[in-house]
Description:
By secondary structure, the chain is α/β, with parallel strands linked by helices. It has helices spanning about 35-40, 110-130, 160-170, 180-190, 215-225, 240-245, 250-255, 265-275; strands spanning about 50-55, 55-65, 80-85, 95-100, 140-145, 150-160, 200-205, 230-235, 255-260.
Amino acid sequence: MKGSRQGAGVSPPLGTSRAEAQPVTRPKRPARRIAAAAGLALAMLAVTSGAASAAAGTVTANKTLSATDIACNGSTDVTLTLQGETGIAGNPVDIVLVLDRSGSMAGAPLANMKTGANAFVDVIDEATDGVLDGVVANGSRVGVVSFSDNATVNEPLTTNAGALKADINALVAGGQTNHTAAINTAEAQLAGSNPASEKVMIIFTDGQSVPSSANGLAAANAAKAAGTEIFAIGLGSVNVGQLNAWASDPDSEHVLIAPSSADLQAIFEAIGAAIVV
């Protein structure tokens, strides 16, 4: 049974590929309830300023009085300013990149994966505060887990985009493909993160599970049951059915197959764009 998301995505036959680097759509978070947020802010007029949390965003309220003293039964003007943030800037997300560094990734695949993963970090960096400044802002964080025979936490969840890129660029190919270890290690990072943040896992792989028992299916189901949204990116001789089983529903929005490693940057950027809305 698939995880927490439901949808009408139809999986392609096993061994077939999806359209390369097609845009990914992600169900948008509910529209911010401005009226409700305004009501909360008005109730706070006794203080100089305050922040009101609204559904699917953050609203900050500030008031300004036109006078410092008010006579009995008198009146004065009050200016109330509301500033809202939507998307990832107002809805923190913790994201773990799960990157295959098995022996088959040597050469161009590994180099292109690094380019794509770095581009993803830039998308998140800029979207969190509108500035590409090396800082993932407003409560969101990104982490990196890589895997071959076993999985390694290369960078715990962090706001430091430079550290993320340095760890991505330091990956070296070698070994087999243990998907169970990869997913379990990534979910352990997310399980210990801020309960108020959304959880997203992006799994990239270029091959099938070795050994076959390390297929990650139970691990992915457990992660989804815990509320993690999973995207899967495949390259080369992947088992598309396996990626469909890992990913959240609908598959058409969460599973992307790269015809070649040159397509990975566009795919990573497309997933980043889907997450930040």
